Amino acid sequence: MKFRAKINDVGCLNHFTRVVNTITKLTKTCVVRLTVDNIFFVLSGKVANGGVSMWCELLQVNFFDEYQLEGVSEDANEICLEVNPENLSRALKTAQNAKSVKIKLTKKHYPCLTLAAELPSLSSISRIVTHDIPVDVIPRRLWHDFKEPSMPDFDVSIYLPPLKTMKSVVDRMKNLSNYLVVEANLCGEMNLKIETDLVSVTTHFKDLGNPPWGASQSQSQSRDVEAMAHARVDIRKLQQFLMGQQVNPTKSMCNIVDKRIIHLILLQEDVSLQYFIPAVV
Amino acid sequence: MPLSTQSQLGNDEYVLVATLDNVRNLSNILKAISFKDYAIFNVTQNGLKVTVEESKCLQANAFIQAEIFQEFTLKEGVVGFQVNLTVLLDCLTIFGGSTVPGVSTALRMCYNGYGYPLTLFLEEGGVVTVCKINTQEPEEPLDFDFCSTNVANKVILQSDSLKEAFSELDLTSEILQLTMSPSHPYFRLSTFGNSGNAHYDYPKDSDMMELFQCTKTQTNRYKMSLLKPSTKALALSCKVSVRTDTRGFLSLQYLVRNDDGQICFVEYYCCPDEEVDEE
Amino acid sequence: MDCVATGGNVKVLAKAIHSLSRIGEELYLEPTEDGLTLRAVNSSRSAFACFLMSPLFFQRYQAPPDQAFRCKMPIKSVQTVFRSLSSLERSVEKCRIEMNNQKSRLRITLHCKHGLLKTHNLSFQDCECLQAVFDKDNCTNVLRAQPRLWVDTVLHFPPSLEEVCVSVSSDRVWLRNHVEDDADSSKAMMTELCLSSEEFDHFVIGSQTSITFCLKELRGLLVFAETAGLPISMYFDEPGSPVVLSVSDSVLDANFVLATLSEDAHQRNNNKANRPRAELPPDDFMCDDIDSYLIAMETSDLAGPSYEPQPQTSSSNHKSRRLSDEEVDEKEEEEEESGEGQPNKKFCSLFFGSVLPASSRPTNQTMQSQEVLASDSEDERQSE
C-alpha cells in the first residue's frame, strides 16, 4: 500500500488548497479515498439520524504532476484514510508559496500523510517544511460505507442563485430562526422562508432554470410544473455549506425530495461536491 | 418596479407607504441607535422618528426626514407603532447591505395601522424578499425636557477626534466625567478605573473644535454603560454637538451623512449620574 | 523621573510594552542612570524579559535622584495608554513619562495632533529588583537573523502550539513542535521546518544540540523586533540552561530569557520525534511502506498501531507520568508557592526576585554568582 503525489504548479496548489479549505469548513473529520484516477473526500453522515453527508470528487491528473498509487491489493487498488481536514488545510496554508509540494503516505509512529513543501528561502538552499498528519487507515471491510451516494429520486431539481446572494439571505435568516424552508418548482422558482412569532420572511428567486436530467428521473416528469416541493432544514447546516464555498462552481444546483432531503451539487471542470441535508419535521 | 407587483394590498389600502432606492439610507441610521431590541416608531408628515430607551436614563432618537424617501405617503396625521429593531435590521440587510457602487437594495415599507404587521418589500438584482414584522402598541417615550434655553455649555467637534477617545476609554471606570468650562481645561473627558485615572483634554482653539460656547464651569458624571451605545452613532457621524443643560443633562447630536450625501440626525439624551459625596 | 520620547520612538516604546504583555501580568519599571528599564516575568518564572531604553532613546531623560527606585504595575493598564498603535502613529507627537513618588502615580502624557492631550495617571506599587540569571556572552551557540526569517519560521506552527524544539547542526537548523507524552498527542500533526545556515546573518554552533522552549515569548519579541526592524539573536547552550533572545541597537537593548526543557525530558522527546536528520533520507517512496501496519489491522480488530514505542526504561516511563501530574498541580499553584514545592515542573524557574542592596547590585544585567536554572530538579525527583 503506497501513495505518493507531487504538485509543482502554484495554480494547482492553490486550487487544491481551496478544495481542502472547503471540506474543512464542512466537517471536522472525513474519509479520503485515493484511487488511481480520483481523490474523494467523503463524509457519510447517517441521513436517517439527521446527519449531513458529503461527497467531493476530484480528478487527480488535473492537480498533480506526479501521482503513484498502490492500493490494498490488485483487485482493490484503493486506499481509504480517515483524516482531519483541518490539519491538511493548515499544512497546505504553510506551503502557499512552495516551489513544490509532495504528499505521501508514510509510516511514522502511526500512519501519516506526510506533506513536504520546498519553500523559497534567502539562500540557495530551500527551506523544507514537513507536516506529518496522522491518519487512520480504514480496513477494507468498512469500505462499503464510503461509496458514492446514489442520486435521490427527487421531486424538483433547480439551479441555485449566486451563492453569495444566497449566503447573505441565509445568514440573516439564521439570526431570526433555527429552521428554514427551501421550496422550488419546475418553473425555475425557488423560495427561502422562515417564520417565527416575531416575523415571517420569504425570499423569492425566479428564472433560475431547471437542469435537464433526462428520462431517468421519471417522478418529476409527471409533476405540475408550478407545484412547490419543499423541505424544512436546520439553517446551520445550510449556512455551513454556503460558508465553506471557496471553489467557484460553474454550475450549482439543488435537488429536493419533498419533505425528506435537499441535495446540493456544485460542479467545476475537475471538482464536484455533493452535500445532503436531511429535512426535519 | 417589481416590488409593487408583489404587494397583496394596493397602495390605497395602506396607512403608510415609504420607498427608498437605497435601503442603507435607513438601515445605517437605525444601526446608530440599535442598543435595545424595541424601538418606537413615530411617523408624521415630516418623516420618521425612531426612539430607543434604556433604564429611563438614556434615550436615542433617529430622524429620517420624509425627503430622504423617494415616496412617502401617510394617510393619517400621526401613526405610531413599536417593533423589534434587531429583527427589523436583519430584514433590512437581508441582501447583505452591499457597499459596492451601483448595487443597492430597494425598499418599499408599508403599514396598515394598529394590529397589522410592518411589511417590507426588498429587491436587489431581481430577487425579492417580503418581510412581515409584528408590531405592538407604542409606549410613550420619555420626555427629557431638554430645551435649548437651558443649555449651559455647548461645543461642536469633528467626530474623528471623539472616536479615538471613545475607542480608548478605560471601561473599568464606571463613569465618564465630562468637564466643560470657559477656562482650562475647556473640554475634558475623564475616567477613573482600576489602574488609575485618565483625562482627555481638547483645547478650545483646536482645529477639531468647530464651535465652543461654554459659559460656566460644569463637571458632570455619566454612567459609562449608558454612554457606550452612543459610540455606534459616533462611528457613523461626521460632526457631534455636545450640550449640557443647567441640570447636568447631556445631549449628544450626531450629524450623519448618507450614501447620497443627504443629512440625517441622531440624538442621545443621558441623565447625569447621582451626585457622589464629593462636595 | 521625567522623560520624553518623540516621533517613532513612542511606537517603539508601545511595542515594547505589548511584547512584555505577552510574558507577564505586571510591568516592572526601573529608571536608572543607564536608562529606563522595563521588565516582566511569567507566573511560573520560567520566562523573563527586559528592555533597556538608554537616555539617548529619549529627547529628555532625567533619572530619579534616588537610585533605588523601582515600581511595578499591571501591564494591562499601561497597555491601555498605548492601545491603538495606528492612532499612535497617526496622531501622537510626544510622550512624557513622569514619576510622582508622593502620590504613587506614574503619569504618562500623550501630546497628540490638534492639541489633544491625553493624561494617564497610573497607580503603582514599590517592588523588589527583578533580574534573571543569564550569561549570553558565554553561550556556545549563537544564531542571528532578520525578524522576517523568524516570523516566516514561526508562521508554520499553529498559534495553539506552546513549545517548539530547535535543533542545530553545523549548517542547519530544525524546528519542530514539541508534543507532550500523553495519549492525545499521537493524533497531533507534527511539523518540522529545516533552515539552512545561509539564511542567518550570524551562525555559530559550538555544540550540536536540541533545546525546547515556549514559543509564546518568541512571538512576543517578534512583535517588537518586526516593528523596530532589528535582527534577533538567539544564544543557547545545552537543554536545561536558558535560551536568550536578544535585540539591540545603539539606544536600546532587549533580552528575553526563557527556560528550556531539562535534559531527561528532552531526550524522551527526541527519541519520540525523529532526531534531526543530519542527512535527509533519499526521497524514495518505496521505503514508506505501511503494509505491515495494514496487515496487523486487517487480521485483528485491534486498531492499535503496530509500531512499538521506543524502548524506555520503566523508571523513565514512570517519570513521564509523574511529570504530567506535576504540571496539573502547577497550574493551580500560585507563584508564591513555587519556593517550597520546588520544581518538578518541566521548565524550571529562572531565578530572580532577590532584593539586593543597591550597592551590591551589578549594573551589568548578568549575575554570575547565582545558580542557573533548573539544575536541581533531577535531585529533587530522585529523592522522592
Automatic annotation (TrEMBL), chain A:
Keyword Cell inner membrane attributed: no
Domain of life, per lineage: Eukaryota
Cellular-component GO terms for this entry: checkpoint clamp complex; cytosol; nucleolus; site of double-strand break
SUPFAM superfamilies linked: DNA clamp
GO BP of this protein: double-strand break repair via homologous recombination; meiotic DNA integrity checkpoint signaling; mitotic DNA replication checkpoint signaling; mitotic intra-S DNA damage checkpoint signaling; nucleotide-excision repair; response to radiation; telomere maintenance
Keywords assigned by UniProt, alphabetized: Cytoplasm, DNA damage, Nucleus
Alphabetical list of InterPro entries matching this protein: DNA_clamp_sf, HUS1, HUS1/Mec3
Quaternary structure, from the entry: Component of the toroidal 9-1-1 (RAD9-RAD1-HUS1) complex, composed of RAD9A, RAD1 and HUS1. The 9-1-1 complex associates with LIG1, POLB, FEN1, RAD17, HDAC1, RPA1 and RPA2. The 9-1-1 complex associates with the RAD17-RFC complex. HUS1 interacts with POLB, HDAC1, FEN1, PCNA and RAD9B. HUS1 does not interact with RAD17. Interacts with DNAJC7.
Lineage, opening ranks: Eukaryota, Metazoa, Chordata, Craniata, Vertebrata
Full protein name: Checkpoint protein
Main location: cytoplasm
Intracellular or extracellular location(s): Cytoplasm, Cytosol; Nucleus
Function: Component of the 9-1-1 cell-cycle checkpoint response complex that plays a major role in DNA repair. The 9-1-1 complex is recruited to DNA lesion upon damage by the RAD17-replication factor C (RFC) clamp loader complex. Acts then as a sliding clamp platform on DNA for several proteins involved in long-patch base excision repair (LP-BER).
Species this chain originates from: Ictalurus punctatus
Family assignment from sequence similarity: Belongs to the HUS1 family.
UniProtKB/TrEMBL annotation, chain B:
Location within or outside the cell: Nucleus
Subunit structure: Component of the toroidal 9-1-1 (RAD9-RAD1-HUS1) complex, composed of RAD9A, RAD1 and HUS1. The 9-1-1 complex associates with LIG1, POLB, FEN1, RAD17, HDAC1, RPA1 and RPA2. The 9-1-1 complex associates with the RAD17-RFC complex. RAD1 interacts with POLB, FEN1, HUS1, HUS1B, RAD9A and RAD9B. Interacts with DNAJC7. Interacts with RHNO1; interaction is direct.
Listed SUPFAM superfamilies: DNA clamp
Protein's GO biological process: DNA damage checkpoint signaling; DNA repair
InterPro entries in UniProt: Cell_cycle_checkpoint_Rad1, DNA_clamp_sf, Rad1_Rec1_Rad17
CDD domains, per database record: PCNA
Record's keyword annotation contains Transit peptide: no
Role, per record: Component of the 9-1-1 cell-cycle checkpoint response complex that plays a major role in DNA repair. The 9-1-1 complex is recruited to DNA lesion upon damage by the RAD17-replication factor C (RFC) clamp loader complex. Acts then as a sliding clamp platform on DNA for several proteins involved in long-patch base excision repair (LP-BER).
This protein's name: Cell cycle checkpoint protein RAD1
One example GO MF annotation: hydrolase activity
Entry's family note: Belongs to the rad1 family.
Gene Ontology terms: cellular component: checkpoint clamp complex
UniProtKB keywords: DNA damage, DNA repair, Hydrolase, Nucleus
Lineage: Eukaryota, Metazoa, Chordata, Craniata, Vertebrata
Automatic annotation (TrEMBL), chain C:
Keywords: DNA damage, Exonuclease, Hydrolase, Nuclease, Nucleus, Phosphoprotein
Gene3D superfamilies linked to this entry: 3.70.10.10
Organism of this sequence: Ictalurus punctatus (Channel catfish)
GO CC terms in record: checkpoint clamp complex
Bias (Acidic residues): 326-339
Chain residue ranges for the region called Disordered: 302-384
Gene from which this protein is expressed: rad9a
Amino acid composition bias (Polar residues), ranges on this chain: 360-372
Protein name: Cell cycle checkpoint control protein
InterPro entries xrefs: DNA_clamp_sf (IPR046938), Rad9 (IPR026584), Rad9/Ddc1 (IPR007268)
Subcellular location: Nucleus
The protein's role, per its UniProt record: Component of the 9-1-1 cell-cycle checkpoint response complex that plays a major role in DNA repair. The 9-1-1 complex is recruited to DNA lesion upon damage by the RAD17-replication factor C (RFC) clamp loader complex. Acts then as a sliding clamp platform on DNA for several proteins involved in long-patch base excision repair (LP-BER).
A biological-process GO annotation: DNA repair
Listed GO MF terms: double-stranded DNA 3'-5' DNA exonuclease activity
Catalysed reaction, written as an equation: Exonucleolytic cleavage in the 3'- to 5'-direction to yield nucleoside 5'-phosphates
